[in-house]
Amino acid sequence: MKRKHAYLLLCLAGTILFFNQLFVNRISAFFGTDVFVSAAVVFVFVSFERVHLGNKWWLPVVAVLVVGVSLGLPLLLYLREGGTESAITAAS
Length: 92
Prior knowledge:
Radius of gyration: 18 Å
Number of strands: 0
Distance between the termini: 65 Å
């Protein structure tokens, strides 16, 4: 077996173990589902706000994937407010 294939197999094993542990009981299943739904909401929100975010639209997506919703959503709102403030200033 090549090293590359071993790494891919370990990725798969880690993912399976993660999901097995995540859904081991009702409380952890609720937590996991809540996080996944929240992440999906952030992704949809980014797609709707992409025009307002300009070329920084991808930052909240990366933040959700790397850290989680706790970083991605506030970053999205921050970037959105920055665009809103500059649009209001330009209109004044």
